[in-house]
Design a protein that fits this description.
Blueprint: H1 11-43, H2 50-74, H3 79-83, E1 86-90, H4 98-112, H5 121-124, H6 131-136, E2 138-142
Antiparallel strand pairs: 1-2
Helix pairs in contact: 1-2, 2-4
Length: about 170
């Protein structure tokens, strides 16, 4: 007798998807920065002083945050998640809205900062949720799988959650 398949994504699959997404987001930031540097060099003498470094850091955070929030709230998966056949869902069985995606993005940053310690719960939680999933009330599933009704997270809908079409 074989054990039933668990529809929740594990840490290795999620790590590969996150690495792909981080690389894609970094390429977007790099290309945007290269264009701005080129335009700046044509207009004036570009110097990286403290203000420029702070603005670059803020721009990086904005682009990376926007990348994750847009993909989670519109498609329920990022390009990296799509390549790894993963999707993120709320307890209601829909992909998260903008508000929940913003909470999840902030939670992702908090999970990464202490040496990725926010991902340790994925190893022990029965729904394989990390800190960011717990904060946002989401789960990550293999694409095409539905969460068992007994294990679906009981998360209240947040403003902006996408409702399923009927």
């Amino acid at each position: 007798m074989t054990a039933p398949q668990v529809p929740y994504a594990g840490i290795a699959t999620r790590a590969v998807a996150l690495a792909i997404d981080a690389a894609v987001a970094q390429v977007i930031v790099f290309c945007g920065g290269a264009v701005l540097a080129l335009v700046g060099s044509l207009v004036t003498d570009v110097r990286l002083d403290t203000l420029a470094k702070i603005l670059a850091a803020v721009a990086w955070v904005a682009v990376v945050g926007f990348y994750f929030v847009v993909f989670w709230s519109t498609a329920g998966q990022t390009p990296g998640m799509r390549l790894m056949a993963l999707r993120v869902m709320t307890g209601g069985g829909v992909h998260p809205g903008v508000t929940r995606s913003v909470v999840r993005a902030v939670g992702l940053a908090l999970a990464i900062i202490p040496l990725f310690a926010g991902f340790i719960p994925v190893l022990f939680d029965r729904r394989r949720r990390g800190l960011h999933d717990m904060l946002a009330g989401t789960v990550v599933l293999y694409a095409g799988e539905e969460p068992p009704p007994a294990l679906a997270p009981a998360a209240a809908p947040l403003l902006g959650d996408v409702q399923p079409s009927r």
